[in-house]
Amino acid sequence: MQNFSLKDNIAIGNLEDENNLEFIKESAEKAGINTFIDTLPEGIETLLSRDFENGTDLSGGQWQKVGIARALFANPKLVILDEPTSALDALAEARVFEEISHLAKDTTMIIVSHRFATVRNADRIIVLDEGKIIESGSHEELMNTTGLYNEMFTKQAEGYK
Asked: What class has domain 6-122?
């Protein structure tokens, strides 16, 4: 959400706590954006738009982390994430999902992804083909079949051998 400060971008998900700077910073740290806050011209108060003096724009990966911080700050009952780590490297993705797993304890999360590293730890994986559910189960259950999930996982894993 451009034209807001980084702080406001995080807080917009939970206006009741919008002045709780400690919780905002905690959410930012869990999402992994504390590493670049200090590099911003005005820190957490930096406007996220080049239209303003001392404003800045973020990379795709940084914007994804801001969105994750917003979700963590909102403390929702349901979160839907569509390719939430597609612009992140493997190490950043692992750190983000480690933090997201804490959120998932009290939250229903729906994650749409084509990356198996993203979905393999899900309680339940649903495989869609042409808009229809063709398989459902845990990673282990789906790997014990000869279905599409097993085939795609195996094919993707070949690239890492």
From this structure: alpha beta
